[in-house]
Structures are given as structure tokens and as C-alpha cells.
Amino acid sequence: MAARLGGKTILITGASSGIGRSIAIEFSRTSPDIKLILAARREETLKELAQSIKAESGGQTKVLPVRLDVSSPSNVNGFINRLPEDWRDIDVLVNNAGLVKGVDKVGEIAEEDINIMMSTNVTGLINMTQKILPIFHARGGRGDVINVGSVAGREPYAGGSIYCASKAAVRSFTESLRRELIATRIRVIEVDPGQVETEFSLVRFGGDKSKADAIYAGCEPLTPEDIAEIVVFAAGRRENVVLADTLVYPSHQA
Ligand code: NDP
Predict the structure, then answer these.
(1) CB within 6 Å of ligand 1 — which residues?
(2) Which of 56, 80, 82, 203 has its CA at a distance of 20 to 30 angstroms from the CA of residue 69?
(3) Has the ipTM of the complex gone over 0.90?
């Protein structure tokens, strides 16, 4: 697997915490000879992660932390051109940035929360993909788009209408794109986690730790590393092998 990943440039959105952070670490541990672009809004956190990955890999992994707000079309538009030239030949895009805000009945949900979920989880992911595809086509139709969806995109729940709808949109977009690119060697991959313990719930409850912790009480959620292993495994398959659609539950989750 390391040989297939070696030398590649991998862009991970939402790399500052949780699943995205673990994906970055796992790529470097699996194949230290790679280049990682770590993107999110918290630049200082990304810088710290970059230092730690470089140190752990003994300097073998090259890491570039870059501020990116996927919910801002203007920020996404200039993103590739803001990268140093020798970082633009991206081989793998991991569209992981995403969030949930509030858990409310449809009639009560704030317009601002609707907009942030849709512009981050859906439009942001689509815009990032659009910026990457020309790079893959210029390489003769090679590269990976790996989208982090959610079980929520398959199994909607009461109180999660917007988040569930956003992840269902990711799912449809991913599958349409996979079919559109079927004549190429561009792989389009979706990994849908069940419950994973990260800052996700903290964001959902606006930083209220007691509410966030209550989500994980009495169960054993997945760890971010569990999902990272699957993402890196998918990217490390032989070019003809597409792990198109993977749903990952913790064993307690129905
Ligand atoms: P975290 O809150 O730990 O991580 C979310 C990441 O997304 C952070 O790095 C955050 O960085 C980034 N992010 C949020 N908004 C933006 C934005 N506008 N632009 C760029 N980056 C952004 O949660 P998880 O690691 O759990 O979530 C990662 C993905 O996994 C999400 O897509 C989520 O929907 C999905 N998921 C999570 C599950 C769970 O139970 N935890 C279950 C199923 C799916 P920053 O704040 O620095 O911008």
C-alpha cells in the first residue's frame, strides 16, 4: 500500500480536528513519503499538527497547513492558485470538512444554521471537487475524490433534518460523479461513518460540553482513527479498485 501512495500529494479538508486530523496522521504513518495539504479554518491548530507529523515522520512527510473556509466560494475559488506551485499537483482530495449545528424541529431551526450546514457540507464539498477535477483530467484522468458522508445521509432521524439532507446530498453527488467519470481512472469514493467521538457534538451544541458528552454516554463510539484507517486503505488500493461506498458502524449502533 505504501508504494502506491508514495510521492502523492493529498489534500484533506477539515484537517484541524477529529476524523480529518486522524486521516492526515494515518496517511503519513502508512506512507511517510507523501505530501499533505492540511486545510481548515483554524490555521494555528493546523500548524501544530503539521509540526507533529513532520517530527513523527522524521521529516519524510512534507506538510503544508493552509487556511480554508469551504463554505466561502471566494475562498475556495482562489485556493489552488494560493498554493505554492510545487503543491498544486494534487492526487487525492479528501472532502472531510463538515458540521452539524443545533438539533431542532424544522420549524425552529435558525436560518443561519441551515445555511452553514448546507454551505459547508454540500456546496463546499462540491466547489472543492470542481476545483480539483481539472488537475486530475490534466494528468490524463487520474486521482481520487474521497468524500466523508454519514450514516445520517442514509438513515434520516427526527431533529436532524438539515444535516441528514446535507449528507444525503453528498451521497447523491458522489454517486453521480462516480458514474460521470466511469471512463477515467478518477476514483470517487464515499466513506460514511456512524457515531464517532470527536469535536463534532461540541460544535453541534455550541460548545456545551455536558450536552456533547451525553451523546457518547453508555455506548462505545468509533474513534477517528477507525475511519482514518478505512480512508487510507481505500486510497491505497490498486488503481482499478474503487471502494465506492462504505458504511462504518460502531458495533452498538443499530
Ligand atoms: P470535527 O468537528 O472534529 O471536525 C470537523 C472539521 O471540519 C474540523 O477540522 C473543522 O475545522 C472543519 N470545518 C468545519 N467547517 C469548515 C469550513 N467552513 N471550512 C473548512 N473546514 C471546516 O468533526 P468530525 O471529525 O467528526 O467530522 C468530520 C466529518 O465526519 C464531517 O463531515 C462530519 O459530518 C462527518 N461525520 C462525523 C460523525 C461523528 O459522529 N463525529 C459521523 C458521521 C459523519 P475548522 O473548525 O478549523 O474549520
Answers:
(1) 13-20, 40-42, 68-71, 96-99, 120, 148, 150, 193, 195-196, 198-200, 203, 224
(2) 56
(3) yes
